[in-house]
Specification:
The chain is mostly helical. It contains seven helices and three strands. The protein has two domains: 71 residues; 86 residues, no CATH class. Strands 1, 2 and 3 form a three-stranded mixed beta sheet that branches.
């Protein structure tokens, strides 16, 4: 049986960054690679997979926003599940990071493990290993990744609020 080449975690990272770059129609793959901590090859094949999956148009330059929104809200938790792990220092994510941090009160912070992190909480495996470093450079990307993590590990209330924020941000970026 032939590999279908479905979406991989780094592809979601690419798509989230592209959703932020709404006003940059002249972006280059090498810029994506640099900003996301990926190789140019990873970006190139990731864009191909996203096109085949219907998350990018045929030119691989424009997001299929409603498809991306649907996948982030309904599919990412099944395709890339995560479970809280051991306590560690790290970078806040899910309900512990903006934009949900101001809406959800919890004694159980979730973090991406990071030696320089200032928050102690339960570890959440990042969607992709380079995601925390990319998030440090781009607060908007950090927020989107945190919302995706809320979909991956959150309870019903967190998922509902995250879905509302994802809808708003993906439509806003159109």
């Amino acid at each position: 049986m032939r590999n279908s080449g479905g979406v991989k975690p780094q592809d979601i990272l690419i798509l989230l960054k592209l959703s932020i770059w709404k006003d940059r129609p002249d972006w280059k793959g090498i810029e994506l690679a640099r900003d996301l901590g990926l190789s140019a090859f990873e970006v190139s094949v990731g864009l191909d997979r996203c096109r085949k999956s219907g998350l990018l148009d045929v030119t691989k330059r424009h997001l299929m926003r409603s498809a991306l929104e649907e996948f982030l809200i309904h599919g990412v938790k099944y395709a890339f599940p995560a479970e809280p792990g051991s306590l560690c220092r790290g970078i806040p994510t899910a309900h512990s990071a903006p934009p949900l941090a101001g809406k959800i009160v919890s004694d159980e912070p979730y973090v991406w493990p990071d030696d320089e992190g200032r928050v102690r909480g339960q570890s959440i495996e990042p969607l992709y290993p380079s995601a925390p470093e990319a998030a440090k450079k781009d607060p908007k990307l950090h927020e989107l990744l945190a919302l995706v993590d809320a979909m991956r590990v959150g309870r019903a209330r967190e998922k509902k609020l995250a879905a509302q924020e994802i809808e708003k941000r993906i439509k806003e970026a159109a």
